[in-house]
Structure formats: C-alpha cells, structure tokens
Specification:
The protein is α/β, with parallel strands linked by helices. 46% of the residues lie in helices and 18% in strands. Helix 4 runs parallel beside helix 5 and helix 5 packs parallel to helix 7. Strands 3-2-1-4-5-6-7 form a seven-stranded parallel sheet.
C-alpha cells in the first residue's frame, strides 16, 4: 500500500515560470527568490528567459532549469520595424511556448509580468492552468489599446492572478477581480 508521503516523494510537480527579461530588475529578483524558496523535493522549476543574462547563473545555482526563447514581451517599440515585426514574434512565441508546455507537461504556468500575453495564450491553448503575476500599473494604463489588450489577455488566459498591491489589482479592472489575490512583496 502506498502512503500519501511516498506519492509526493515519487512525483515532483513541474512549474514553468516565464519571464520577460534576463536582466536584474524587481520582477526578475522576485522570481529568483520564489525559485530559491520552492520545495525542490516537491516542485521542479523551469524558467523561460529570452536569452542568457546576469541572473542565469543565479537561477542555475538555485537548482532551476533554464530554457531560452523569445516570449515576445510587449514593450515600447523604438522604431516602426519593431512594431511591424511584432505580430510575427508574438505568433512564434505562442507556438514555441505551446510546444515547450506540451513537451514539459507542467502542472502550472506562472507568467511573471503583465507584458507576456503570448505565454498566457500558449498555456490556454495547451490546457494548462495559468497563474499571472502582475506587477505593473503604468503599462496597463499607458495606452488604451495596449492596456486593453493586456487586461483582456490576462482575463481570458489566467486561472488566478497575483497582484503585488491593491492599486495593481484595481488597475486590472472590476471584471476580473474574482480571480485576483493581492500578495505584497516580502
């Protein structure tokens, strides 16, 4: 007879974290700390980064497997070519992330910023629960079109939303408040 404890020892749950940068910033450090404090006996974290960067070594030292691919973050476009190319980058990101999700079979996808709608759509298409960690207010309010697209993507694709403050939660709009939990930074 198998006990409950031995079942947990036999299976580690894969958590796929998707991050928008490989740099040192608030969301990046927060994700690193989340990964450092996971119970690695129960969870097998994989972090998607756009390329190798300053935090790559830190993630690896924390026992995190890294995958490098472009998650097509929505940020300021510095020239018209970036704007024209973005729909192709977005479609490729959805496809590549969907393939990764299907291959790795994570129990959950954790999207680490509001600017990664491709990650949410890939999780939705793969049928994997998505937790969206929202940290930004300014981006959701900068442009009506971009803000509406990001809020709509978060609403449609997420199963749960983690907002880092009441102000961020309010900025997501009243329609999705039922999915939102506010968890302040430690």
């Amino acid at each position: 007879m198998t006990t409950q404890k031995s079942i947990h020892q036999q299976r580690r749950f894969c958590v796929l974290f998707i991050n928008s940068t490989s740099e040192i910033g608030g969301a990046d450090i927060d994700l690193l700390e989340i990964c450092r404090h996971l119970d690695h006996g129960r969870f097998a974290p994989i972090v998607v980064l756009p390329q190798e960067g300053p935090l790559s070594v830190e993630f690896e030292a924390a026992g995190v497997r890294l995958v490098y691919l472009d998650p097509a973050p929505i940020k300021r476009f510095r020239n018209p070519v970036q704007l024209v190319v973005f729909p192709l980058r977005f479609a490729l990101a959805v496809l590549n992330l969907w393939r990764l999700i299907r291959r790795e079979k994570p129990a959950i996808v954790h999207v680490n910023t509001a600017v990664l709608p491709a990650a949410g759509y890939a999780a939705k298409l793969a049928g994997v629960p998505c937790v969206w960690h929202v940290r930004e207010i300014e981006l959701l309010q900068r442009s009506r079109v971009v803000g509406a697209f990001l809020r709509g993507s978060i609403r449609v694709c997420s199963n749960r939303i983690v907002a880092i403050s009441d102000a961020v939660a309010k900025g997501l709009g009243a329609v999705i408040q039922i999915k939102v939990s506010v968890i302040y930074h430690g």
